[in-house]
Amino acid sequence: MSTYWLDLFTGQTWQEFLEANGSVSGFRESRWTTVRKIKPGDTLLCYLTGISRFIGALEVTGPPYRIRRE
User: Fold this and answer.
1) Of 17, 23, 26, 46, which residue is least crowded by CB atoms under 10 Å?
2) First and final CA of the chain: distance in angstroms?
3) What pLDDT digit, counting tens, does each position of 10-69 carry?
4) Rounded CA gap, 20 and 24, in Å?
């Protein structure tokens, strides 16, 4: 059974997502506990802040991973 998750974008992060071929979506470090629950087959509902609109739905195809910034 698929679970639906909210994936928030700003105008800038949406543009960056599209320019990167829309293959990886990122979340804030503080959301890691929640992100770990996202599984392949789940759906990310893309919401664009600023215009307050849903703009897409993405199927999760792999497990989450964490990039630590120094």
Assistant:
1) 23
2) 37
3) 999 999 999 999 988 989 889 999 999 999 999 999 999 999 999 999 999 999 988 877
4) 8
Q: Looking up tokens 């990167």, which residue turns up?
A: 20
Cα→Cα distances 68→6, 28, 32, 47, Å: 22, 11, 11, 25
Q: pTM to 2 decimals?
A: 0.86
- Neighbour-count burial of 7, counting CB atoms closer than 10 A to its CB (0-12 exposed, 13-18 middle, 19+ buried): buried
* Listed residue (2, 64, 69) closest to 34, CA to CA: 64
